[in-house]
Amino acid sequence: MHPFILNRKPLEKTLNQTKPLVSAQHLGLEIAGRQVLHDISFALQPEEIVTVIGPNGAGKTTLLRLLLGLIRPTSGRVERHTGLRLGYVPQRLQIDATMPISTERFLQLGSTAVDTHSVLARVGASKLASMQLAELSGGEMQRVLLARAISRKPQLLVLDEPTQGVDISGQSEVYQLIAALRDELACSVLLVSHDLHLVMAATDRVLCINQHLCCQGHPSQVSRDPAYLALFGDKVVPYSHQHNHEHNLRGEPLAKKQIAGDSLQNHTNDPSKKSVNK
Length: 278
Prior knowledge:
The protein is α/β, with parallel strands linked by helices and 278 residues long. It has helices at 3-7, 60-68, 103-108, 116-122, 138-150, 168-185, 196-199, 219-222, 226-232, 256-259, 265-268; strands spanning 22-31, 34-44, 49-53, 75-80, 86-89, 156-160, 188-192, 205-209, 213-217. Strand 8 and strand 9 (213-217) form a beta hairpin. The radius of gyration is 19 Å and the shape is globular.
């Protein structure tokens, strides 16, 4: 068992498992006379992976920010479960190249009690602990941000483009990791993604938006919905990655002799875990 999981305390059973963690009711946002989002309603259930998809400019990131309470809607409302613990991974984090802060120190901002070694190991990023944040690649930074998010033992993990900066060979592994974390932390996951060929096979439910909610449901249902087909066509099919190898932090396949020391494979290929698609 991975040390991060071994050392974690059981999650408090304070959440009503039948009540949505977050719900949006007729949600809308207008900025400078332009309707950015309108009439969006849905609810996020406990231990559910929900992916928001849509074309560029559809309002996906804006929807996340509304749900997190970072901006206020101009119509409708958002309801969040009382006491809900959130973990958030933004699409990108701008770091001043002259700022002398290591990965380990960054993870301890706000709480020196964080077990940086364990959370970095859990996301396959142990080697980054002593590196300066400004030296990290895009994919490495995303793993560090994910490590920071899970260190709070969230009940809802929110990720905006979690494979930003990760090449195609490593993206499937990131989604497998997210699914494993959902199971281990017993949390819900809400994420935004452009990786249609991957995410349609790695989520419980899909929300397809384009300023409004075009359609939602299980990936197999959404992929046949006329609204989805009008946006993306019928050429996007679920992607199956034959995972008989592993990748380094930059997404490059590892030679077999390098695999033994990697911690990620033991979790993503564990047959005892729940399947991603319920």
